[in-house]
Amino acid sequence: MKIIILMFVFIASCGYGLAQESMLCVGHYWTEDEGNQMLKEFATEWSDRASWEARAAKIKKGIIEGMQFDKMPNIEGNFNAIIRNKHEMDGYIVENIAIESFPGFYITGNLYRPASEDGTYAAILSPHGHLKDKRFTEDIQKRAATMARMGAVVFAYDMIGYAESKQVDHKMPIALLLQTYNSKRVLDYLLSRSDVDPERIGMTGGSGGGTQTFVLTAIDDRIKVAAPVVQVSAHFFGGCVCESGMPIHKSASHQTNNVEVAALCAPRPMIIVSDGADWTRNTPRVEYPYIQKIYALYNGENRVENVHLPLEKHDYGYSKRSAVYNFFGHHLDLNMGSIPYDEGYNEDFVTFLPRKELEVFTEEEPMPKNALQGNSAVMNYLKIRL
């Protein structure tokens, strides 16, 4: 209730219209029982592939229109990539990278790629959740480096307002739109690289990064394999403005939740990782069975999995990473034998780098002068009004 009240105050202060405000589904919008019941009601609206696809089209349309995604710049290329500080590690390479999302707005991150530079590789988008300087943490570095050594080009990039992405505040009204568009531009960039196989594109993130994973996967079929971690819930819609601050779950003509948003991945491979101490604790009994039924419409039950860790909490820790390594290894055709294994994957080969070695922009090499600064400057440039 406190989260909902705080979000209401924030929304009101940002000048949202009453029409949008009434369509927002924020945080614990339903109880667990209500979420379970709502899935049963949703299921009455489809009975076969054709009726599900009609519902899926309505949900996808609701996401795109709800976040005003179709109003964002239609840009091809023009990434103006800045790549610095090549770090050659044990079986992988790390580079500091920034690309231009649109003129004057920069996506900051790190590019992890295989040490060999022959042929083409899978590519993986790696958004993250809500934690200060999350991109520089040990778990992000381990996940990205391990997948790079397995044979993927991995782009780990900042949430807006976090780490180096300080051109806007994270709580800006269009945070969901801006983050999703940035993810789309990261995908565009990866697909533009000559060393990337466009048929082997994956995306994974935990918590808020899990939200980014299932939202972009829902609206962009170029994501071939998805792994949203500790976030797919029937009753919880995400408590941050970057997840539920724009009306993507409800309109005058429909209501949905993050289970159905995630299910738009079907029939592409997807693994859902859940745990016993957050809003994903019911996944094996509530959320996953619903998604399985959708995959069954495509005879694709073998392409969706749930790894539930009832003794664990809300994170993207070792056991969760290991589950995704196996899933991506299989569906993205990665080299799982390249990672030391002895009753579990050994990530000790990963060298932890401090923030100063992973930053793209420094006092000596600052962000370009055309950088837009502040929420208003960005929203005015985009001409987005709520």
Write a structural description.
The chain has 386 residues and is α/β, with parallel strands linked by helices. Helix content is 35%, strand content 18%. It has 13 helices and nine strands. It has helices at residues 2-13, 18-21, 32-43, 49-66, 138-150, 175-192, 208-219, 241-244, 258-263, 287-296, 318-331, 355-358, 375-382; strands spanning 82-88, 92-102, 105-114, 121-126, 152-157, 196-206, 225-229, 270-275, 304-309. The protein has a nine-stranded mixed β-sheet, sandwiched between helices. Helix 5 (138-150) packs parallel to helix 11. The protein is globular and about 55 Å long. Mean pLDDT is 94; it is low at 1-18.
Q: Which structural class matches the secondary elements?
A: alpha/beta
Q: Radius of gyration in whole Å, from Cα? A: 20 Å
The outline comes out as globular
Give the helix level as a range of percent.
25-40%
Total beta strands: 9
Can you tell me the residue ranges where pLDDT is under 50 for at least 5 consecutive residues? 1-18
Mean pLDDT: 94
Strand order of the largest sheet: 1-2-3-5-4-6-7-8-9
- How many helices? The count is 13
End-to-end CA span = 24 Å
Largest sheet: number of strands, sense, barrel closure: 9 strands, mixed
Order of helices and strands: HHHHEEEEHEHEHEHHEHEHHH
Q: In percent terms, what proportion of residues is strand? A: 15-25%
